[in-house]
C-alpha cells in the first residue's frame, strides 16, 4: 500500500465498440483500432519505464490460443470469434 514514486498518468483504454458486441462478434475495423491501441500502449509503457513489455495484442491473444473450455469453443466460432494473431 502506498503511493507510486512517480505519477504514471492515466492508462489508455480500448474503445468500448471493440469489446461490446450484440449477438455476433463484430470484426469490422477491429484490426485498425487494435493496431492504433498497440501503438498508444507502446508510448504509454515507454513513458512509465516498461518499454520491454510484450505488445498488448500479442500478449492478450496468446491467452486465447488455447481452448480452455471446449464446450464453449463451438459457440464462439459460430458467432464469428476467431483468433488470427
Overview of the molecule:
It is a single chain. The protein is 41% helix and 0% strand. With 85 residues, it is mainly α. It has a domain at 27-78. The longest helix is centred in the middle third of the chain and has 18 residues, at 30-47.
Q: What descriptive keywords fit this protein?
A:
mainly alpha; 0% strand; elongated
Quick one: overall form? elongated
Low-pLDDT regions: none
| Helical run tally | 3
The strand count comes to 0
Terminal-residue CA separation: 37 Å
Secondary-structure map:
Layout: H1 30-47, H2 56-63, H3 70-78
Structure, briefly:
With 85 residues, the protein is mainly α. It has helices at 30-47, 56-63, 70-78. The longest helix is centred in the middle third of the chain and has 18 residues, at 30-47.
